[in-house]
Design goal:
Largest sheet: 6 strands, mixed
Radius of gyration: 27 Å
Strand order of the largest sheet: 3-2-1-4-6-5
CATH superfamily of the largest domain: HUPs
Strand content: 15-25%
CATH class of the largest domain: Alpha Beta
Helix content: 25-40%
Shape: globular
Number of strands: 20
Structural class: alpha+beta
Length: about 450
Amino acid sequence: MSLRESENPVAVALSAGADSTAALLWALGNFATERIIALHYHHNLRGPDADADCEHARRLAESLGVGFLTEKRPAGRPANESSLRDDRIRFLMAAARAAGAAAVIQGHHADDVAESLLMRLGRGSGTAGLSAPRPVSALPDGTPILRPLLALKKAELENLVRSARIAWRHDASNDDPSAATRNRIRHGVTKPWAEAIPGDAIAGAARTRMLLQEDDDALNAWAETLLTNTPGAGTNAEGTIRLPRPTPPRAVMRRVIHMISIRPATGTRIAAPAMDAMLDAIEEDRPHRTTLSPEFALRYRHGILTLSRNRTESLPRAEASLPVPGAAFWPDGASLTADYPIGAEHTVADNSLCVLIRPSEQATLRCTPRLSGDRYRPLGAPGTQKLHDAMINRKIPSAARNSLPVVRDDHGILWCPGLLPSELARLSESDLRPLRLTWNPPAAAYAALPVT
């Protein structure tokens, strides 16, 4: 079903500037008014001016008969370019999800394309980066993004909005070259560059972006075909790829390696120097190995790429306190929560990632790495055993063992993800409020944990 045939709402990111106002007018020309909802993120940086932007966006939405959602950024949060962008994207995802929106429309234009191209040239970007922003892409949660105005210049959008007799707000911070990298590029690079180039440099940059997207899509399709048609290449964990002879071009192999490195099992992206070193080895047909993550490595030898698990164990997980109820968090995105669920049955529900145990006598539990000599008595076992032996018996991968938190109270070990709870954690008939422990591993790194 096409977007026009869908009955779901269509969201428009509305800053109240001319670009986003033009995007709202485009949406009104292509979708039923009642389907459109404007999303305004209040960055909370420019005091009354930011408040006025929000109020202008609200009144504009009301005057055009479209819905409106807004959120004000909490005071005190970091205000650098990266954090502001992340907060704005988070709002767009949450608001689009709340509205049930089929897509989010943004007002990027040809001037934005030129600025992005110049910025990314300085960062050493390839065709993927140089072909952004694209007409169609997606937010991190998969929500589609549409940018229908990329072929038009900013001045053309302003004329369009002006002809509709609609006022817009001007963000004065965009005029300050010291405020952001994009501002410095816009005022110190793009304008003199466009003036120095014969012809229409902005239109030329937009065409270059389009051509780079075509090349990038073609190279990605070639790489995906190579992966799909190679036995063993489609696995999420370990796999072997026998490269055809002659070896595909370097640009294709770069994408093959990138696609392997970003798979959920590896949970990482290969760094640029490591990528170049691997490509050099493939071109010269010499053995080479690079580490993708603490658990995975990529090896090349005699025309064969192999993704395999490292044999070394992972680093121990740092100790953390677990409030009851509450949660413990780690820098890699992992977390462990403790809560008292409503209506939980008085049985231990062990799926290796979540268990029900006896209520805690303590306000805080300890989450520690596996310690030398750790022993515990698994639920129902006649006696104790080494924690290390229990992990081996449960077939927990060696690379994951040190990274699993061990939950303890003052009496001893209560539970470790992947294992049965301890006898110390056994529920009794008198326990009216069982405690639920839930392990949330980082980036599916422990998908190999056994499930009972």
